């Protein structure tokens, strides 16, 4: 009996140590970014220590006083909010009839929507670039914001699955009271579906906050540059007429960039897991 208990304790300790090692390996790049922002260029390139020997705030001062940080942040926030609001509204409007109404060809429409999830986004960028170029939308946020108002398939799928778990008796009671279809959607289904909406909203915000591929394709000028592009091009400087990449400055900018998604996750974590789980219910 004692041997079995000892083996169980040893197994738990071993499993805990394995998890601790995995956690350290996963968080080491983040720790390196957080500490790198407080190093000088000389220390960053010569010292092998993770922790800064002589911490400095000059990298953060450069970002705030010698770069267009507020402009880049404004553009990123506009992109994030515009796409997220469009995604939530359009996905709900598409998912509602697929989940709560009966009409000819409903299964075919849903099958086509699910099938489009198999198409990689990168395959659509070139045709979209040509199309948006012809209508004069290049070098703006419109090529990324406007498509989000036409519903992304994965979000439609998640909302449709959750709507199907809500009893239809609520719809019938609302119809008896004279509630329209839009009233049922926004007054009954949306409040009940808060976990799914928060999940989609958080995932959309984090995606567009971190998105690089599409802004690089569509944005050319500094006017509409986002933080991800600026992280590659703007948070560096020239010294003695020589172009120098200041990695500590880039680390400091990366530190500022990762804080909003982390705070957003802490805000929505209560709903995030539940929303993802319920998205696969009742196919």
Give an overview of the whole structure.
The chain is mainly α and 283 residues long. The protein folds into 2 domains: 2-58; 68-278, MetI-like (MetI-like fold), CATH 1.10.3720.10. Helix content is 73%, strand content 2%. It has helices spanning 2-36, 41-46, 58-66, 69-100, 106-116, 122-134, 142-148, 153-163, 169-176, 181-192, 194-210, 213-218, 227-233, 247-278, and strands at 237-239, 242-244. A two-stranded antiparallel ribbon has the order 1-2. α1 (2-36) packs across α14, α3 (58-66) packs across α14 and α11 (194-210) packs antiparallel against α14 (247-278). The longest helix has 35 residues, at 2-36. It is globular and about 70 Å long.
The total of helices stands at: 14
Q: What is the architecture of the largest domain at the second tier of CATH?
A: Orthogonal Bundle
Instruction: Give the strand order of the largest sheet, numbering strands 1, 2, ... along the chain.
Output: 1-2
The helix-strand sequence is HHHHHHHHHHHHHEEH
- Stated plainly, the CATH topology of the largest domain is called MetI-like fold
Beta fraction? under 5%
Low-confidence stretches: 279-283
**How can the largest sheet be summarized?**
2 strands, antiparallel
CATH superfamily of the largest domain: MetI-like
In total, how many domains does the architecture comprise? 2
Helix content: over 70%
What's the overall average pLDDT, rounded? 84
- Structural class determined from secondary elements: mainly alpha
CATH class call of the largest domain: Mainly Alpha
């Amino acid at each position: 009996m004692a041997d079995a208990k000892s083996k169980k304790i040893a197994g738990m300790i071993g499993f805990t140590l394995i998890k601790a090692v995995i956690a350290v390996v996963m968080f080491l790049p983040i720790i390196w970014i957080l500490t790198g922002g407080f190093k000088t260029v000389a220390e960053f390139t010569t010292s092998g220590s993770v922790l800064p020997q002589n911490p400095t705030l000059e990298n953060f001062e450069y970002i705030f006083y010698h770069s267009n940080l507020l402009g880049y942040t404004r553009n990123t926030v506009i992109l994030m909010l515009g796409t997220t609001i469009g995604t939530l509204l359009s996905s709900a409007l598409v998912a509602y009839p697929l989940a709560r109404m009966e009409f000819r060809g409903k299964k075919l429409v849903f099958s086509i929507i699910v099938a489009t999830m198999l198409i990689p986004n990168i395959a659509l960028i070139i045709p979209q670039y040509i199309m948006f170029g012809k209508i004069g939308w290049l070098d703006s946020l419109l090529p990324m914001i406007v498509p989000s108002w036409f519903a992304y398939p994965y979000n439609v799928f998640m909302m449709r699955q959750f709507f199907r778990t809500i009893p239809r008796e609520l719809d019938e009671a609302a119809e008896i009271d004279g509630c329209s279809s839009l009233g049922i959607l926004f007054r009954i289904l949306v409040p009940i579906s808060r976990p799914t909406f928060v999940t989609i909203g958080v995932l959309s915000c984090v995606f567009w906050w971190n998105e690089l591929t599409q802004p690089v394709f569509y944005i050319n000028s500094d006017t509409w540059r986002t933080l991800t592009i600026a992280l590659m091009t703007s948070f560096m400087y020239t010294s003695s007429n020589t172009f120098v990449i200041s990695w500590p400055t880039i680390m400091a900018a990366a530190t500022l960039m990762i804080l909003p998604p982390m705070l957003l996750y802490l805000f929505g974590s209560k709903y995030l897991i539940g929303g993802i789980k319920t998205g696969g219910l009742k196919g």
